[in-house]
Amino acid sequence: MLLPRPRGPLSNHVVAALLREESDQSDVALGHEPVVTDADAQLALWILYELHYRGFDDVVGDREWDTSLIKVRRRLETCFERELREASAPMLGTTNGPREVGDAILELVASAEGPPLARFLQREADEDQLRDYLKQRSLQQLKESDPQAFVVPRLGGAAKVALAELQYDEFGGGRPERLHQSLYAEALEGAGLDPTYGAYVDEVSALSLANANVMSMFALNRRLRGAALGHFAAFEASSSVPSRKVATGIERLGLPAAVAAYFHEHVEADAVHEQVAARDMCGALVADEPDLLDDVLFGAAACLHLDALSAADLLKRWSADDDGPELDVAS
Question: N or C, where is the chain less crowded by C-beta within 10 Å?
């Protein structure tokens, strides 16, 4: 994979620095827009995180721990985390009284009222919109569960075991062809899209980048390990029903079975995973480290918040592209 095209001064600074063989000590100012929805900031952050994953073919040398680039990353992370905490606070304020952490996570998921993206894909989306949806999710799903793998050595005891159990399923249960990443690549290919890792980074929205970046931010910062598990649990708990709807929409459009197969896999798997993730994994973590309860719930709320923003963004964009009545994204 080659470095993506810059989208502004921040990502241009990062790309230019990585194309040089020596560390760049020059500074660059952050923009005035919220980082969550700033495509330039999110792309810069995605590039910096990707150095910890598969890297870039046109980056020479070991730049993963370049201190000047880590400084840029930390500044972006500080703003990103602050914005997510502020946006998540109202959601967390609606749950009252002492409760078991698993119940609290599932309560957050059940009470989330995001735009009806899955229902639209099930009943109304055309092939172009479905393909756009697959592209937008590709940065997340082609590295599915890779960020959470960074969290494993940060845990102990029952929480570690529960996360490893989930990872084993996500990574194919010992069969490379059943890797959920591979299933998503097959879905892309079946829909006539490029299954290559990172193929659509130049096309996806700021919010698609943010959804991928939040998992890396939580996983690569040890102090946010609670948020990483809370995010993972909310993602699993909010996936099964939407996956069924998306699979139905794919079949309605007559696309190849491989496209729907990825989503069918998650209908059953995530219905089981949500209990393991919320109760066994997060429950064990909070039992061992009670001070992490708030971070676990923050991670869950951040997942739901970004998912809702992404859904609204897609529905509004598709409505504008159709030049018809604006979709009701609130119902």
Answer: C
